[in-house]
Amino acid sequence: MKNHTILLSLLVLILASCSGNKNLIEVKFEGEAQGTYYAVTYYDSKGISYQQAIDSFFRAFDQSASIYQKESIITRLNNNDSTAKADEIFTYVFNKSMEVSEKTDGAFDITVLPLVNAWGFGFTDPMKLDSAQVDSLLPLVNYRNVRLVNGRLVKSNPAIMVDFNAIAQGYSADLIGKILESHGIENYLIDVGGEVLARGTKPENKMWKVGIEKPAENADDERILNAVVSLRDKALATSGSYRKYFVKDGIRYSHTIDPKTGFPVNHTVLSVSVLAGDCISADAYATSFMVMGLDKTKKFLALHPELNAYIIYSDATGKLSTWSSDGLSQLIEAAPSEVK
User: Fold this and answer.
1) Of 37, 50, 22, 149, which is closest to residue 98 (Cα–Cα)?
2) Which of 238, 301, 243 is nearest to 274 (CA)?
3) Which of 1, 113, 138, 327 could form an S-S bond across to 163 if both were Cys, CB 3.0 to 4.6 Å?
4) Is residue 42 part of a domain?
């Protein structure tokens, strides 16, 4: 549920039709949700559209996990509303967030919201920040200072706030997949603001094709693909520093905040795409790796073979370079120059 100004880093390519199998009907629809777009494609013998059910799902999801909804569960818990209680969605996302935070030693941290707001990337106007002001907010940022007990958010400081923006879109893609599966649909591609979940295949056993965008110099530059990934029964999520930022005194500040320093990340990594078994994991680790940087991410992946990543970074000469873990390299092909 990132702000609607976030432009997304994955362009989904549907490169085949259902003509190869007359028993399956392609169903495609798209819409707007969570401040971004969504697109769903699936193959089914009935050819029924479940867009209405999915639109209803998004509205319910936002009432649990959106910081932009004044009466959502997350907003009420952030505001210390004693009558608010976590539901199933909030609980699952919170617990997954804690798991990722532990594994990444705090590179992923949902308590970063006070800093996100202060830098102008949340739901408040930006502050005029200096190091002293950032230091004053850092005590509010530590995932170990918040717990979920019997549905209540227990904080070491009532000013602590949590934010699911770096993980919720991925989970919403997973849940949409469950909706489709409940109707017997096994072959689908779901894209929620660039967080993509693929299950099964297209007709004739063709894998789904998903594009990874080349980092742009400016936020409104034309979108060009850097690579195309073949997917089956996997999720792919991308986090980048090149679409949402602001410039002050000639310095570009990324929307990705390092929870330990309190400042926007400032390293050579421009984009991280993560391949995982589910989209909530891919989404959370993509943000984590943007914070960790190239070298730490490589070391982390060596210990976690269940995850793979494709990283676009700027080398010592300022030229774009890429690195990919082995499990993802075999699924990548160069983007055709004519596809944008």
Assistant:
1) 149
2) 238
3) 113
4) no
**Model confidence over 253-298: pLDDT tens digits?**
456 889 998 888 877 888 899 999 999 999 999 999 999 999 999 9
Q: Where are the beta strands (DSSP E) in 193-292?
A: 195-199, 208-213, 225-231, 234-240, 245-248, 251-254, 269-276
**Domain hosting residue 83, numbered range:** 59-155
- Distance (Å, whole) CA 114 – CA 111: 7
The full DSSP string for 316-330 is TTS-EEEEE-HHHHT
Integer Cα distance of 223 and 316 in angstroms: 24
Report the alpha-carbon distance of residue 63 to residue 74 in Å, rounded: 8
Sign of CA dihedral 155, 160, 163, 167: negative
Identify the CATH number of the domain in which residue 125 sits: 1.10.3980.10
pTM of the model: 0.87
Q: Facing residues of 275 across strands?
A: 236, 308
Flag whether 47 is in a domain. Answer: no
* Rounded percentage of the chain residues whose pLDDT exceeds 70: 82
- Distance, first Cα to last Cα, the chain: 25
H helical segments located in the chain: 51-65, 73-78, 88-103, 113-118, 131-137, 168-182, 279-292, 294-303, 326-329
| Distance between CA atoms of residues 173 and 89, nearest Å | 13
Q: Is the dihedral of CA 123, 254, 306, 43 positive or negative?
A: positive
DSSP string, 50-98: -HHHHHHHHHHHHHHH-TTSTTSHHHHHHTT-TT----HHHHHHHHHHH
Rounded Cα distance between 262 and 141, Å, is 9
Output 118-126 pairs: Cβ under 8 A, ≥24 positions apart.
Answer: 119/253, 119/255, 119/257, 119/264, 120/246, 121/3, 121/244, 121/255, 121/257, 122/3, 122/67, 122/163, 123/67, 123/68, 126/246
Whether residue 108 is contained in a domain is answered as: yes
What are the distances in angstroms from CA 13 to CA 166, 193, 207, 231?
Answer: 24, 14, 11, 11
